[in-house]
Design brief:
The structure holds two protein chains of two kinds. By secondary structure, chain A is mostly helical. Chain A has two helices and one strand, in the order H-E-H. Classes of the chains: A mainly alpha, B alpha+beta.
Chain lengths: 72, 260
């Protein structure tokens, strides 16, 4: 009979892997959203917001890689 | 080409085509016989904020506009909810040289709930040690969960800020715009000409809105969108007054036949 801890660890591994991949998709949507909003309404801080959205995307990609490294 | 009739008794007083502004020919008396003074010929061409208007017209326009400028005041900082005559702000639907009178966002107080929740989310991991899960989790998983949590906290605050920052109500010298981004993928732009505005009402309901002076503005229009609702904006009374002045200015322009 498999250990209950190993089952939970496997479930967490799947959860984190899938979650991080979906999060990257979400981060891409955020980048697109900020770009679209900035195209419609332009103000002083738009460039900062665009930079933040790209940083968020970069960090989410980094998280996918980290999840692969640390869970497999 | 034969000259057109210049017999002032046979023409209507407002027949502008036959009333010449030039000195009349030898057959006509130098003084006009009509009781009404001759009107200047109005060009049918559309003129926007005419600079060639008469001095009286310019001063009338200036009078209304000056009142509007006095009402809007001056910008405090770019992240204000009430942004009069912004220098850097612009938007996609704006025409060339269309002056932006006022930009409104939701009152700053309406952001308090997500700011507080974000702060709670930031400090929440400090308390996780007291509520540990009932089975051992490898350290790598904990690190990932920790990073996920802060990334999610960041995006929660970021999305709320974007929602506040980009959902704007814009008043230009000719039109009003209500730009709304409801979620990641839904955008709605409502536009109405100031001349089409029929009625402006506002309400300030509740204890905090009364203390902090924010409320809702309803603009009834004769355009395709019958009603524009703007929620929780600062100084709704002042905004209603500004719109009233802008309507008066538009009415003045319409009376003078200057269509924009």
């Amino acid at each position: 009979m498999p250990d209950i801890n190993s089952i939970f660890t496997l479930l967490f591994r799947i959860f984190f892997l899938l979650g991080s991949v979906f999060y990257v998709v979400f981060a891409v949507v955020v980048v697109r959203q900020v770009a679209m909003m900035s195209k419609n309404v332009y103000d002083k801080f738009n460039s900062i917001l665009i930079i933040f959205s790209y940083l968020h995307l970069a960090f989410s990609i980094f998280l996918v890689l980290l999840t692969f490294i640390l869970t497999i | 080409m034969a000259p057109r009739t210049t017999d002032l008794d046979t023409i209507a007083p407002d027949d502008i085509d036959v009333i010449s502004t030039k000195p009349p020919s030898h057959s006509i008396s130098p003084k006009p016989i009509s009781p009404l003074p001759p009107r200047p010929i109005v060009k049918p061409k559309k003129i926007k904020k005419s600079k060639t208007a008469s001095p009286r017209t310019s001063s009338e326009d200036l009078k209304y506009r000056q009142k509007v400028y006095e009402l809007v005041g001056k910008a405090k900082h770019p992240l204000a909810s009430f942004l009069p005559r912004p220098k850097f702000f612009t938007f996609q639907q704006r025409d060339d040289n269309e002056e932006i009178i006022l930009v409104l966002r939701r009152h700053w107080f309406t952001n308090l709930h997500w700011i507080l929740l974000s702060l709670i989310m930031v400090i929440a991991p400090l308390f996780f040690t007291y509520f540990s899960i009932p089975f051992p989790l490898p350290t790598g998983y904990k690190i990932i969960a920790f990073l996920f949590w802060y990334l999610f906290t960041f995006v929660y605050a970021f999305e709320n800020f974007l929602s506040w920052y980009f959902n704007v109500f814009i008043l230009t010298e000719e039109r009003v715009f209500d730009i709304d981004f409801y979620n990641l993928l839904v955008k709605e732009v409502t536009e109405a000409k100031i001349s089409m505005i029929q009625d402006v009402t506002y309400n300030v309901i509740g204890f905090l809105p009364t203390i902090l002076n924010y409320g809702n503005l309803n603009i009834q229009t004769a355009s395709e969108v019958p009603m524009i609702h703007i929620d929780r904006i600062p100084n709704p009374e002042v905004v209603a007054k500004i719109l009233q002045q802008m309507r008066l200015e538009e009415e003045q322009e319409a009376l003078e036949g200057r269509v924009s």
